[in-house]
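Milestone M4 deliverable, item 7.
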Amino acid sequence: MNGSASSGLPRPGPAVIFLLLLVGAMSIAQAILVNFAHTQAPFLILAGDADKILHGEVWRLLTASVLTNPGSLSDVLFTLMGIYFLSTEVERRWGARRYLAFVAGAVVFGNLVTTLLHLLPISSSLFHPEIFFGSYAAVAAISVAFSLEMPDIVIRLFFFVPVRGAWLKWVTLVMAVVAVLYGAAGTEGPFAPLAGWSVGMLFGGTPSVVRRAYLNWKLGRLQKTTSSARGKRPAGAPALRVVKGGLPDESGPNKRMLN
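Output delivered:
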């Protein structure tokens, strides 16, 4: 993926740099531990495990997202490219705080969906991965956020397919649905990218769907309170009466000629 909004490569902000360094460093560390030290213990402590999460090890909902497949270079490369090319402009518009909260929410919700689907009495292995990890829920959410924020920018998907920003969210949805239909589980399970896409649709954009709904609800409450206050008199207030003022007193003598 690369954008054509401006010349040259995008300059990432501090939040994007932090994520790139975190995912990259974790990938290198796990590759060394698994492939050369022949130990998977640190990896398994951080990876998603539905049974262990349901028994209280909830940190896995977040830590699983910083892991990539230690036996696949393409996994970490696609993750880093997805974060880099799509996140830079989103962070610039949102700020680091909102961007990081958005990414964290996407991966936690994606891993939570995978965990809860494990409870369903369905025999398919798609619903019961032994472990799960990866950041594709975040990449899906970021793709939607990019699409909502920059609908007119043209990007080149996989470096050669031109796609307008407005269509990127639907391309992401189609890819996520196809992955489910064909059982392409990936490392996160097939439903995590769909969950990430949903987070993007709800919390992406400015204002987001959720924030717009909240502001409309808050405005409705304010209007209702104001309308109610106008229609009520305070308890114990005296009865209303008309007071005549500014008119001459017709009962008294006419003093206009005294001067």
